[in-house]
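Q&A log
Question type: sequence-to-structure
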Amino acid sequence: MEERKVLHEITPLMGKDVLYIADRHKKEFTYPIHNHEVFELNFVEHAPGVRRIVGDSSEVIGEYELVLITSPDLEHVWEQHECKSQDIREITVHFDISMDEDSLFGKTPFTSLRKMMNEARKGLAFPMPAIMKVYAQLNSLSTIKEGFYAVMQFLTILYELSKCDGARTLASTSYAKVAVEDDSRRILKVKNYISTNFMDEMRLATLADIAGMSPSAFSRFFKLHTGRNLTDYIIDIRLGYATRMLVDTSRSISEISFNCGFNNLSNFNRIFKKKKGCSPSEFRESYHKTKVLI
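Response status: OK
Response body:
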């Protein structure tokens, strides 16, 4: 399999600039996997069969695609894969807007926007209704000559997206190195415990005790609150750390398996292939990277 290099991209966004907009038609995706300091909103049209990779997420996209990424460390790429389209349109917006609490965007009207930007540290893919809601504004964004109005239109796009339902995070929390968050203090305590002790055996009784509940009540509470089975959540956390180690270290697969809490190598390989669609060694080979500063 061909080695994939991760470029740390220096975008054309410079100094006091706020937006860089690239609106282009092309026949194929050729840019390698990369990451960059600035935020990115990427729209792709008429490119079914393209494979989009964001962190440890890999999916084949359909006719329309809109993804927001707000982490400088989260590598991403759109690969040609099985796409046969001769007229792909891609609109990429790089932007540098502080969402700090003490900035304008820390005020109440921007609450949903801040929440969305926070979620997008793992990469955020928007559903078709959200894409259609902002399509006209995205379509005309690159034609706006006056910088102020371009920024206002782009902020409107972001705000409309922040009010839409159904956006999905892409990379796992542990892979993207994002702090664990939750509205419930009980669930947050358990998630923090799992994140810190993922390499050890996890007993339901221990986790339930941390939450101050009986094991059966806690299992129901966790599923009701998160929409996920506790066992699946633990596996996903462990796999996130495992994929990060596969990418960032030269440790053996058996060592990574042990360090991430899997009881044996064959069990790790089986679960990894089921969840990721490839073996750990295939994943490492496809993600093998050399960071290049350009």
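Response note: The first helix runs from residue 111 to 119.
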